[in-house]
Amino acid sequence: NKNNYSLQINPASYVNPDHLHYFKFIGRFIAMAMYHGKFIYSGFTMPFYKRMLNRKLTMKDIESIDPEFYNSLVWIRDNNIEECGLEMYFSVDFELLGEIKPHNLKAGGADIKVTEENKEEFGPGYGVENDPRN
Fold first, then answer.
1. CA separation for the pair 51, 19 (Å, rounded)
2. CA distance 6 to 43
3. What was the pLDDT predicted at 82?
4. Three-state secondary structure call for residue 95
5. Ramachandran region of residue 63, left (φ > 0), alpha (ψ -120 to 50) or beta?
6. Which residues in the chain land under pLDDT 70?
7. Are 37 and 30 in contact (CB under 8 A)?
């Protein structure tokens, strides 16, 4: 959010051949801070910490990273998407270093239309769960 400064991993980090060394360094840095009981100001996003601790992510976790995307998922969850005529599939396109890349949210996702019956799977396809219904 705008009031907090937090870091998250850039999906394009692989372009730097030393990126794994940087991850190893920051891991050691965090471990030392935890060991010595020090608080790290301007740390990582909550979903990053939850993944580090092997905790389950919820849809609410997305809100701190991308409020607009979160609001879209909430709207999909709370409304009848078939009445709106949305043509959504279990596949998304994302831009990485100026190139548009497709990504299936589940096997064969480009051919599976999101419907009222299967829309509950749409959130988990992103690796999150709809928190009010846990």
1. 19
2. 5
3. 87
4. strand
5. alpha
6. 1-5, 42, 123-134
7. no
Helix (H, G, I), strand (E, B) or coil at 8: coil
pLDDT value of position 3 = 61
Extended beta strands in 39-96, E state: 91-96
Tokens 């701190």 identify what position? 64
CA 105 to chain CA centroid, nearest Å:
12
d(CA 101, CA 94): 5
Which of 101-122 are b and which e, b meaning 16 or more Cβ less than 10 Å from the residue's Cβ? eeeebeeebeebebeeeebeeb
| H-assigned helices in the chain | 19-35, 46-52, 59-63, 67-78, 81-84, 122-125
Match 């999906």 to its residue by tokens.
11
Contact criterion met (CB below 8 Å) for 37 and 26: no
